Amino acid sequence: MYHQPVLLKETLESIPSDAKVIIDGTFGHGWHSMAIAEQFPQAKIFGIDRDQAMISKAQERLWPDSNIAIWHGSYADIMSLCKSTWIQWVDYILLDIGVNMDHFKDGSRGFSVHEDAPLDMRFDMSQDLTADQIIHNESIDKLSAIFQRYADFAPDKANELAQTIAKERKQHSIQTTGELRTILGLCGLGKKASTVIFQAIRIAVNQELKQLEDFLQSFDDVLNPWGRCAIMSYHSIEDRLVKQSFKNKVASENYIAIHKKAIKPSWQEVQQNRAARSAVLRIIEKK
Ligand SMILES: C[S@@+](CC[C@H](N)C(=O)[O-])C[C@H]1O[C@@H](n2cnc3c(N)ncnc32)[C@H](O)[C@@H]1O
Question: Domain limits of the chain?
């Protein structure tokens, strides 16, 4: 099935016409990268993804002579990844942050509330920290903080959830996402609210905000003057981080904002691709 890359036209239009080195920091299945490769045949494209399974799947579809190379790693390590391949300057960096639809479809990874799977939720399967460890080892305060900060739950409700999890884990080990859903159900959470809690646990497992913060602090070291950085986010906390960081960079007079307002998908795009509905794209250019 063809996957519709989010805000593709707007992304392609924002790439400098003479770009020679482009980094797609969230390669996924490579749909954005493949469209970029087609429109910018003169450019070398480097894709990064934390999930080796995504890379392997995408590699099956890439032409052997394509101008795309893929690294397994995190966009937060963009500086060291560039150094390791002798890349000094990059003309365009794209991040399309979050999960891939395949993460939800793969019932074994623990991302979906609709499946019963081990409590895993790691993008990078070589990482130690799993959802299981968060559910069993974090203190009540830390669990509550995760639910407040990443799921926007009120303190009372977040505390109730954290206490219920702590009570259950004392009695028996919570092995699967199905069992976790049952526990969330004890606190009155339906599928929608459980989805938000699953997302919060996933953000904690993968330290997604820390990854983004590290990237925002480091991409300047590899971006060429006139180069651009485009970030698409789907979560208000992530967008807030991007918005604030870009605002600071523009205020420091080293960057200019390409658009006055963030770019959002059109009504037509959302009709064709529900996954695009909460996307927010921000782009800045280095002076
Ligand atoms: C929304 S998908 C990207 C889809 C992609 N633009 C496409 O066209 O196929 C996000 C991807 O980012 C990856 N990812 C999440 N955090 C990452 C990180 N810190 N560094 C690199 N990749 C990451 C996920 O594994 C997932 O494949």
Answer: 8-102+209-286, 128-205
> Cα(68)–Cα(55) distance, rounded to whole angstroms?
12
Amino acid at 130: T
Q: What percent of the chain clears pLDDT 90, i.e. is strictly above it?
A: 91
Structure confidence at residue 1 as a pLDDT band (50, 70, 90): very low
List the strands of the sheet with 255-257, edge to edge: 68-72, 44-49, 21-24, 90-96, 223-233, 280-286, 255-257
Q: How far does the centroid of ligand 1 lie from the alpha carbon of residue 186, in Å? A: 33
How does pLDDT run across 262-286, given as a tens digit for each residue?
999 999 999 999 989 999 999 999 9
- pTM of the complete model: 0.95
Tell me, using a 6 A CB cutoff, whether residue 93 lines ligand 1: no
Given a cut of 80, whether residue 134 has pLDDT beyond it is yes
Question: Going by CA atoms, what residue is nearest to atom 4 of ligand 1?
Answer: 28
What is the position in ligand 1's atom list of the atom closest to the CA of 206? 16
Q: What are the tens digits of pLDDT across the range 165-193?
A: 999 999 999 999 999 999 999 999 999 99
* Domain 8-102+209-286: assigned CATH number: 3.40.50.150
- To test the pocket of ligand 1, the residue of 7, 27, 78, 235 to mutate (highest count of ligand atoms within 8 Å of its CB) is 27
CA–CA separation, 202 and 51 (whole Å): 14
Q: Is 232 in the pocket of ligand 1 (CB under 6 A)?
A: no
pLDDT value at 152 more than 80: yes
